[in-house]
């Protein structure tokens, strides 16, 4: 059953911009974002730390006002209609929504009351979410005693108490182990299917954006550099085929033959006794190429065929690897955001 | 995830409902773990036990009669000034941010938190009075109730200021503690809370006259003794109301500016 059946755009931004001033230097965290997200979409903002993902989310959730430009969420302006926006959205930030000194169930009830639910209704809804998010064993314990995964599930529950039209998740799986991350993704997918809520999440995990989102918005330096489905973003890139040889002269021959065989859009590179090929349909060409090279007396000793990833998309768009970029700054985006924000305040 | 719908109580919850929600939320950990406040409850008693024997015999009435209202006011000031400390934790862990994105009104976040400190304050006052009444202290319940009302108002103001201080000190906890500690003792001493300022030099006298807490403490002393001098009581209420008004204004402004 779908609860939110409205159609049309639920998030619209026009020239949305946010600057921070830190030590007399202006940092343009988000620059002129024009965006339209329809009701029911599941969108991932993908980008390295500091790309402006969290800042965008913080503007859309009324936490910080834009420096210029406008944004509306669920039909209300994020500056002039703050309260209406807050009523329509759920927000799961990078921290824990539930107070560490509190008990999970108490926090869920309090959040329900904050959204105008009656006491009985808030209790009923809390019990329902505790059950659904597998929190029964820990709901009546102090939040600080919960594991990271349990706390994250509780955070998600907090964001869902009022069945929001739009749910924002800021790096929901950061700090979770792979198993908990997979569980969380499953829960988000289920939630999306069953409620029809619009879900906007930020992530720097490529796999997450790839696995979850119908639409991936790649952000870098405060600007959108790509906006499409993951499949379409990757489609133009071709597969990556890596061939290993015993001898360098074999590799040289292989590189020449591969170049002759493939069309001009393919890219062939040799490094020592390794040949790297990026080509559309590379996985289909690879077996033929191996047979061909064996017949020519330059046998392939090792082969690896990899489908394009969103990392390749990012590399192709920016010339930088998303993983490398993510590794550059160790502090997370929210921290650096708040730091600069204080100075601005 | 959920296939049920939810029904909302009212389209918009008002300031009072929001404030009650925030206050109840803040009191939950205390309610769930009463032992956590036990230490804070006992603290003023330790203070009394160590300080009261040192008091000289007062010319009019017992020393306890003079000292107890001061201790009650001090306890209240201390508790209220810690309001921001709980907020500091919640700003670090993220639950403050979650509250900011909820439809709760900004002022209810402030007033609810400040009012939360009033409840332990009432309990502390009750404990202190229960302990001192068997000694040379006359309990005047009516006066105490009026006195507590003044202190509650005063607490909202101090609590709100503490809240604002925590917001401004975001990410630099040392700033919160430094300012809180630096201000609280002069504030206490200048109000003649621990020692009478009768023989103080002129400049100290002026500083004391400018301190709103002075008027609150004077009103408390009169009320706890069972007398109701209109001017003193009014001055106490007025001073508390000014602090409350100032605190809430500064607090709400800071909250708007910090978001």
Shape of chain A: elongated
Order of helical and strand elements of chain A: EEEHEEHEHHHEHEHEEHEHEEHEHHH
Beta content of chain A? 25-35%
End-to-end CA span of chain A: 45 Å
Order of helices and strands of chain B: HHHHHHHHHHHH
For the biggest β-sheet of chain A, the strand order reads 6-7-8-3-9-10
DSSP E strands of chain A, number: 14
Q: How helix-rich are the residues of chain B, as a percent range? A: over 70%
Shape of chain B: globular
**Low-pLDDT residue spans of chain B:** none
Q: Could you tell me the strand content of chain B as a percent range?
A: under 5%
- Secondary structural class of chain B: mainly alpha
The averaged pLDDT of chain B comes out at 84
Average pLDDT rating of chain A: 85
How many β strands of chain B by DSSP?
0
Query: What is the count of helical runs of chain A?
Result: 13
Report on this model:
The complex is a heterodimer of chains A (345) and B (259). Chain A has 345 residues and is an alpha/beta fold. Chain A has 13 helices and 14 strands. In chain A, the strands form three sheets. In chain A, strands 6-7-8-3-9-10 form a six-stranded mixed beta sheet, with helices on both faces. In chain A, strands 2-1-4-5 form a four-stranded antiparallel beta sheet, covered by helices on one side. A four-stranded antiparallel beta sheet of chain A has the order 12-13-11-14, covered by helices on one side. In chain A, β12 and β13 form a beta hairpin. The longest helix of chain A is centred in the middle third of the chain and has 18 residues. The radius of gyration of chain A is 24 Å and the shape is elongated. Chain A starts with 8 loop residues before the first strand and ends with a helix. With 259 residues, chain B is mainly α. Chain B is globular, with a radius of gyration of 20 Å. Chain B has twelve helices and no strands. The mean pLDDT of chain B is 84. The interface between A and B is large, with 52 and 42 residues.
